[in-house]
Amino acid sequence: QVQLAESGGGLVQTGGSLRLSCVASGFTFSSVEMNWVRQAPGKGLEWVAVIGSRGLYTNYAGGVKGRFTISRDNAKNTVYLQLNSLKPEDTAVYFCQHGSNRGQGTQVTVSS
Length: 112
Prior knowledge:
Oligomer: single chain
Shape: globular
Order of helices and strands: EEEEEEEEEEE
Number of helices: 0
């Protein structure tokens, strides 16, 4: 079955950086696009970024463009999200997503 395991979250100050990872299993990772989404406290899911199956295509939500970078390593069945210039409004649980499947998420907290 599809399994997604996110890691790399933590507590950082405004302006800091984090690198999130998501290890996937149970499907042909190299053949599918992958997404990162997030959920801030008390809010719904927000799409953050997408990457094509070969990593040649990426797209970002407007609020993170220029600060976040999505990448993938198909040999490791892993998708990454580099978070730079973090702001308090980036505080959320971050999930990787394939279709309707998400992992348990990883908490990112940005202090002001």
